[in-house]
Specification:
2 copies of one chain form a homodimer. Chain A has 360 residues and is α+β, with helices and mostly antiparallel strands. Chain A has 3 domains: 7-91, Rossmann fold (3-Layer(aba) Sandwich), CATH 3.40.50.20; 120-180, ATP-grasp fold, A domain (Dna Ligase, domain 1); 186-359, ATP-grasp fold, B domain (D-amino Acid Aminotransferase, Chain A, domain 1). Chain A is 28% helix and 30% strand. The first copy, chain A, contains 11 helices and 18 strands. In chain A, strands 10, 11, 12, 13, 14, 15, 16, 17 and 18 form a 9-stranded antiparallel sheet that branches. Chain A has a 5-stranded parallel sheet with strand order 3-2-1-4-5, sandwiched between helices. Chain A has a 4-stranded antiparallel sheet with strand order 6-9-7-8, with helices on both faces. In chain A, a hairpin with a 5-residue loop joins β10 (186-194) and β11 (200-202). Chain A is globular. Chains A and B meet through α1, α11 and β17 of A and α1, α11 and β16 of B.
């Protein structure tokens, strides 16, 4: 168990690391960011930082010696890096969870083996296996690289009449997974936390709206039935348990209607704090960032109740230019990530708005 | 007006600077802490820091060149330091407000000249002027050094029969002020913000309980009449206006009953974020730290509504050892200041507890 004054090491220096560091400070922890990019946003709020590559094992050795526990902000930390660190210091979540969630095929197989519903899927290695997968799953289907996809990158839809070989070329002929297209009503997610000794807490299921494959807005409460709400928590609990997970994670799901009843189909697991949990920063008793620190530190989990009807809206690219309007809006909470350049599609910040129940 | 990406310079590296820096980051600002003490708590959460003395004018010159605006966390910044910086970069609040509030005699005179009620007071330079002051004001009275007093330091009560010369010796025979003792019901304070162009916002009047002259607990709502609540805001507004104040400040007041009606008597002005405003960190829509940043940056002020019945309790000295109990208490918010050593009387952190109105 960490104690105040100890140092939390974080791999990755983006906005998630930045918000974890901002949450760690009031809990009395120092933070040390490890990231390769010059001017990483998290460097600005941390006690120390190391700017080095993820395969710079000398730098990793020094980093391991300078921190009391290591966590990370993104799932694409090389497993070799996580394992190197884990031989020297506690790493949460562990390399096992990382390995599974880095590979869409391993992840889907893992979830399906738990008896949790996922879209039909099949491995794709080449054109022949793609043709076989299409024959089995049918169209429309989504072809995704097994690794390194995010925000819609590394995936392509294959509809009736589309050329399968061209689709495979479009994702770089990387090892892939073909998934049956799920005709969903909306996308939802559960952000949850689990501790090493098995304590578990999940935030209310959240409703997510994407634009151009990037999360645009999250809303709680979600328009789901109480049954779906309960089932979604149970799914997160079982996934966390089976992964032996420590920290905050998100389960992205499709909300579907089958025979007139709502249900959910698991789409993806994110082994980290998650954009769809940013609403908790002002909208819940404990933010997902504090919760992650608590879980990783081996501390009691915080209360997950929401404070009202909450809306989180991302500021993408030059939408961040609206910062002054946000500041002028009573009750809106501005969160900028300290990124110098507002490139198109880049997450520059977000806004939370809390509507208290008695306002309704 | 500051813009995201600009740098806020902060003089002082203690918990107030730390919490200002933590509030500045989500608004997109970088922070640069200037403090003489090794291992200052605010260094851990800032983009940059300068460890140098307040009269190191070469270091101040570099600091002024590295930041876009300067603020401070404590009223004892040497006026020469503030003026040196103000010749190079905007300093908020300004040296004028600093000069008045550093000197209890100047401050009391200033408030009294606004027609706002303060305890009867008189200047004390030596034993003779102390005797004259006692004859005028009567006993009990409180003898306070004009400068550098905080948390009850530099003050002594003179009761019936006490030796006045001994009291003067006890405060080091420094230039002083004698104040009539106010038989107050309780201590209250108003934390408010003002911008350069005269916008003003005040948090609800707060009720404060001290132990050993150190703030122990703040509570809102305070047990005061609506009239006192309104008057206290009006007092803060007029003081802020007369000082041409920019930033967050606190007005400490005594709640008294005269002829059966509650009233307030101003005790002290703090030209900075204030311990009695720490409840706003989880208990108000906008925290006093964010509000200070907004005011200093020239931005719109945030909403000041409280979220419920709020209690803020300081963790003094080894009370901070209770951190794990606080973490285990649902809904309690832990704020540790990252201080290495828990000396007696040292403010190590605080806890906020919010009781939502519908729980009552």
């Amino acid at each position: 168990m960490l104690k105040p004054g100890y140092t939390l090491g974080i791999l990755g220096g983006g906005q998630l690391a930045r918000m974890i560091a901002l949450a760690a400070a009031p809990l009395g922890l120092k933070t040390h960011i490890y990231a390769p990019e010059d001017g990483s946003p998290a460097f600005d709020v941390a006690s120390a930082h190391t700017q080095a590559a993820y395969d710079d094992f000398e730098a990793l050795e020094r980093f391991a010696g300078a921190v009391d526990v290591v966590t990370y902000e993104f799932e694409n930390v090389p497993v070799a890096t996580a394992e190197f660190l884990a031989a020297r210091v506690s790493v949460h979540p562990g390399a096992g969870a990382l390995g599974i969630t880095q590979d869409r095929l391993a992840e889907k197989t893992f979830v399906a083996n738990l008896g949790i519903e996922v879209a039909p899927f099949a491995a794709v290695e080449d054109e022949a296996s793609l043709e076989a997968a299409l024959a089995e799953i049918g169209r429309p289907a989504v072809l995704k690289t097994r690794r390194f996809g995010y925000d819609g990158k590394g995936q392509v839809m294959i509809r009736e009449g589309d050329d399968a070989a061209a689709a495979f070329a479009a994702i770089g002929r990387h090892p892939a997974i073909l998934e049956g297209f799920v005709p969903f009503i909306r996308e939802v997610s559960v952000v949850a936390a689990r501790t090493e000794d098995g304590r578990f807490a999940a935030y209310e299921i959240t409703q997510n709206e994407h634009r151009h494959h990037i999360l645009y807005r999250s809303t709680v409460p979600a328009e789901v039935t109480p049954a779906v709400s309960a089932v979604s928590h149970e799914i997160a609990r079982r996934i966390g348990e089976a992964l032996g997970y420590v920290g905050v994670f998100a389960v992205e799901m499709f909300l579907v209607v089958v025979d007139g009843a709502q249900g959910v189909i698991v789409n993806e697991i994110a082994p980290r704090v998650h954009n769809s949990g940013h609403w908790t920063l002002d909208g819940a008793v404990t933010s997902q960032f504090e919760q992650h620190v608590r879980a990783v530190a081996g501390w009691p989990l915080g209360a997950v109740e929401r404070l009202g009807h909450v809306e989180m809206t991302n500021l993408i690219g030059d939408e961040a230019n609206s910062w002054l309007d946000v500041l002028a809006e009573p009750g809106a909470h501005l969160h900028l990530y300290g990124k110098a350049e507002a490139r198109p599609g880049r997450k520059m910040g977000h806004v939370t708005r809390i509507f208290f129940e008695d306002d309704a």
